[in-house]
Amino acid sequence: MSGAKIKAVTALEILDSRGNPTLRAGVLLEDGSAGWANVPSGASTGVHEAHELRDGDRERYGGKGVRQAAENVRGPLARAVAGLEAGDCRRVDQALIDADGTPNKSRLGANAILAVSLASARAGAASAGQSLWRWLCPGSKKVLPVPMMNILNGGAHAANNVDIQEFMIIPRGVGSFGEGLRRCAEVYHALGAILRERGLGSGVGDEGGFAPNLGSDEEALELLLRAIGRAGYRPGEEIALALDAAVSEWAGEDGVYRTPKGGKRRSREELAGYWGEIAERYPVVSLEDGMAEDDWGGWQLLTQRLGGRMQLVGDDLFVTNAGRLERGMGEKAGNAILIKPNQVGTLSETLAAVEMAQGAGWGVVMSHRSGETEDAFIADLAVAAGCGQIKAGAPCRSERVAKYNRLLEIEGEMGIS
Ligand code: 2PG
Ligand code: MG
């Protein structure tokens, strides 16, 4: 490969959608091309995620500043990639990994490393004069993903009494991405109207979904079915449901789960039984983190019971890490992986997890974080890697809509290619 070399790397401490600091990196190439990237940040983070470096200085942003991470970009990381070809993502990423030298990127920060990794890829695409989605993953089949839209928020993403973190809708049998987006937006508005009519809160949570207080989590599912009907669609056939329970947040001692808000206690067997009941009663086709991140036995049980009839997505379980995914495949824990580049810290490692999942016929869902920015890199990446599914929140709030709007653009570009 011969391409333009990296000349300079910059960093900026910016804000994410929760008003917390995060990083932007810029990469300038010798041919004058440039790329930038912002990194997102989670709330329900898995313990096995790569390390997000924060300053811890209580005088600034309650300790959440990323000035040190920015310095790491400008210093050791910039030195590590100087003179490398931006188009050679693997080499760039390996140089970043080596410069850090720790297994979980705790020395220089996965946020610092990812910002440079993604910005460098963007610069490489710019230098090649190509759209990012077309340039990334050469040789792979480009596929527009089906959106999984989180239209009702609970758990760690909302200050309401709902335990399940994300209630999502999935358009089915649509002819285009734009058509699916329209359906989902219509259902979202129908849900808002129903909540207002019932005097329930129509304020939104971190990912733009409504965040009302409800009598139970099942009531949220009932509301979604109603909203789908109100928008003129058949639940299950035209719009299906998906959940992210984020159950790592429910894990207590001795394998007993306790819902964080409702305080319901369940053994892993009871929890598996509960998800079985939900799947019986509602058209839920995908369940993410139905067991906690280290409950491999619970995941196996869930997969034995429900793996044949629905997608079981590991988020905190796999943390976009090919090593953990390999273990999951060996132990038959789950049948799909959530992909969040900042869980692992480089583009190349992200793609390694995607490729491993695809090679085994597992489902792949590209994902945003609950703390996001206007950067829509994951939209391009989802298409480039042919993930097939994306979750990027509600069709509301610009940091969420940026991803969907980018996919509309890509759909347009595909039409004229
Ligand atoms: C999740 C994500 C994104 P967070 O659990 O899947 O929806 O949330 O970024 O808070 O980990
Ligand atoms: Mg999740």
Provide structural commentary.
This protein is an alpha/beta fold and 417 residues long. 39% of the residues lie in helices and 17% in strands. The chain contains 13 helices and 13 strands. The chain has helices at 67-81, 89-100, 110-128, 132-135, 177-197, 217-230, 268-281, 296-306, 322-331, 341-344, 347-359, 377-384, 398-415; strands spanning 6-15, 21-29, 34-38, 146-153, 166-171, 239-244, 257-258, 265-266, 284-288, 311-314, 336-339, 363-367, 388-391. An 8-stranded mixed beta barrel has the order 4-5-6-9-10-11-12-13, surrounded by 6 helices. Helix 2 (89-100) packs antiparallel against helix 3 and helix 5 crosses helix 6. The protein is globular. The relative contact order is 0.14. The structure holds 2-phosphoglyceric acid and magnesium ion (MG). The site of magnesium ion has 6 residues, from loops.
DSSP E strands, number: 13
Shape, per Cα inertia axes: globular
Which kinds of small molecule does this entry bind, naming each only once? Answer: 2-phosphoglyceric acid, magnesium ion
Placed side by side, the strands forming the largest sheet appear as: 4-5-6-9-10-11-12-13
The helix content, as a percent range, equals: 25-40%
Contiguous low-pLDDT stretches (5 residues minimum) are: none
Mean pLDDT: 97
Q: What oligomeric state is this?
A: single chain
Strand and helix order: EEEHHHHEEHHEEEHEHEHEHHEHEH
Distance between the termini: 24 Å
Report the biggest beta sheet as strand number plus sense, adding barrel if it closes.
8 strands, mixed, barrel
Tally of contiguous helical segments? 13
Q: What is the percentage of strand-forming residues?
A: 15-25%
Alpha carbon gyration radius: 21 Å
Structural class: alpha/beta
